[in-house]
Amino acid sequence: MPRRIAVVGAGLAAVSTCDALRARGYDGELVLYSAEHGLPYDRPPLSKDVLLGKARREDVSLRPEQWYEGQRIELRDGTSVRTIRPGEGGVELADGSVAGADRVVLATGGTPRPLPVPGGDDPAVHLLRTWEDAERLRERLLPGAAVTVVGAGLIGAETAAVAVALGCRVTLVDPVAVPLAGVVGDHLAGVLHRRHAEEGIEVITAGVERIERRAGQLVVRLAGREEGVVADTVVAGIGIRPAVELAQGAGLHVDNGVVVRVGQRTSHPNVFAVGDVARLDGHPVRHEHWEAAQRGGEAAASGLLGLTVPEVGAPWFWSDRYGVRLEAVGSMADAERVVLRGERMAFGLRGDRVVAAAGIDRGRDVKVARRIIDRGIEVDAGRLVDGGDLRSVLR
Ligand SMILES: Cc1cc2nc3c(=O)[nH]c(=O)nc-3n(C[C@H](O)[C@H](O)[C@H](O)COP(=O)(O)OP(=O)(O)OC[C@H]3O[C@@H](n4cnc5c(N)ncnc54)[C@H](O)[C@@H]3O)c2cc1C
Q: Within this chain, do residues 107 and 133 fall inside the same structural domain, yes or no?
């Protein structure tokens, strides 16, 4: 049993790890190092209710302050870890001091990719990852403001939807004609993407070449188009880079994230990794989603305590825009074909097995689909397509 565990990062994956450690009977010391200030908070509301001005910081806290005290978790906010020294049993903090720890959990998440073009680092080009990012951006989303969102994936699409709801004049730019097709299938991705134009957004399929300043505004220059897009504010939602520096510094196996095995174990026996920063060995992608961070924490707690690690099943996420909810489970990339159940639900099949499903406002069907995927049930595609009760497939 470890005596002192240091958890680096204080997002959902870190808090979930601490929660699960105590729930599984861990009685030793638990220290949570957070580079950010204040209580750990949830990120999904940042691109939804926080930008809309409907949620305050205290509304998005992951746990109340007393919880940390009650669970005997030492929360060291505003404290960055500079290096981890798993062989010597400790972590080095940004002020140069060294703190002991016989196990380290890396829950460092990721940082948004800046726009990799000239002018991409202009202060009027916003990224969205932290509470401060959301606050800064919210101040810019004023009625009538010209806002260009680059990247029409999950966060870009949500931000565009919020901006148009707040009365901004929004342009959405992506080099891919139908973003998210690889995640939810062509049909659903098309339905989702067309909705932007239906809501009054100008949608442009093009890559950004550079960003110029002109008379207090920005001009977004696009490949293959003479005319630039003039904007007061640009938001880039083009993905994140996993924060792997500490793992690299300690010589851990890093390859598109910190590579982990069952129980979130890294290549060093004293180090575990969870959440957006971790990639499960043998899986091509990191699951940068809320539930993966939550479940990763539970798996890490079991791994740290030498307990049986719960099965995680297919990854799931949701995304909200224009009052509708997209949910997806499994991996559409593994599907050989996609079949539709009405206009708003798609299943990805490999042979006779369902490997992925996605739905727009189809939460109940996605839940059933998840059980079908997790149980590996073979199914006749006709039963997915017809309008009958999907639960019959489970029987
Ligand atoms: C705007 C937004 C909207 C989202 N919406 C959805 C959604 O609708 N649905 C969904 O499924 N998922 C959504 N997600 C994704 C989900 O929130 C993330 O997958 C989840 O927050 C990942 O948690 P994490 O703990 O791994 O990382 P993070 O939440 O990024 O936490 C990592 C923390 O570690 C800290 N840190 C890093 N390095 C150090 C260091 N050296 N020392 C100390 N601290 C350090 C960072 O400052 C940060 O606070 C959204 C994410 C964002 C940003």
A: no
